[in-house]
Design goal:
There is one protein chain. The protein is an alpha/beta fold and 182 residues long. The radius of gyration is 16 Å and the shape is globular. Helix content is 18%, strand content 28%.
Length: 182
């Protein structure tokens, strides 16, 4: 895949997938990034949603690949989106996720809530790279690796993409067993 100005399409050029995706079903959140490329290599069904919702919730285990290109930093509960994606994927499904991240590597374990600049706009949640990885992992995924040139991962652009696979373990974030007031 050729280099692209669109960050998610650029990340797809680094994805480790089989040569052919014959019969694969793809779910894309936040746009249709990579649809032409993925259908050219055999993906049979491409479903694109702007935002996840319980009304549009796909059948559990219905997809082989999920691409999350929506602006999670504007969502009050970004972990809920990853849990929603985990339910949509087959047991060994693949997730390609992107997020705005804090570019400072010393803040990798942290996340910041940035107040909305104007009335009516959403506040933003911006994780460091490690916090972003942990968010994906506690939602029921094993991270396979970061996508992109090692030298550019989140440093200049403040964007990072990763590839993960769904696991059979129960997501680690269970507030009934791990209360926040500890």
């Amino acid at each position: 895949m050729a280099s692209s100005e669109k960050p998610t399409e650029r990340a797809l050029s680094f994805v480790r997938l089989p040569d052919r995706l014959d019969g694969w079903r793809v779910l894309a959140l936040g746009g249709n990034a990579g649809e032409d490329y993925l259908t050219d290599i055999g993906a049979s069904d491409f479903v694109s949603l702007e935002r996840p919702s319980e009304e549009d919730a796909p059948e559990a285990g219905a997809f082989d690949l999920a691409i999350c290109d929506c602006e999670l930093e504007c969502d009050a509960h970004p972990l809920a989106i990853y849990a929603w994606l985990r339910r949509a994927l087959k047991p060994k499904g693949v997730l390609i996720a992107g997020s705005t991240v804090l570019p400072d590597p010393t803040r990798s374990r942290h996340a910041r809530f940035l107040h909305a600049p104007d009335a009516g706009e959403a506040s933003r949640w911006v994780p460091g790279r490690l916090a972003f990885r942990w968010m994906v992992e506690v939602s029921g995924f094993d991270v396979d690796g970061w996508l992109g040139e090692r030298a550019e991962l989140g440093k200049r652009t403040g964007l990072a993409h990763l590839q993960a696979k769904a696991t059979d373990r129960t997501p680690a974030l269970d507030l009934a067993r791990q209360p926040l007031d500890r």
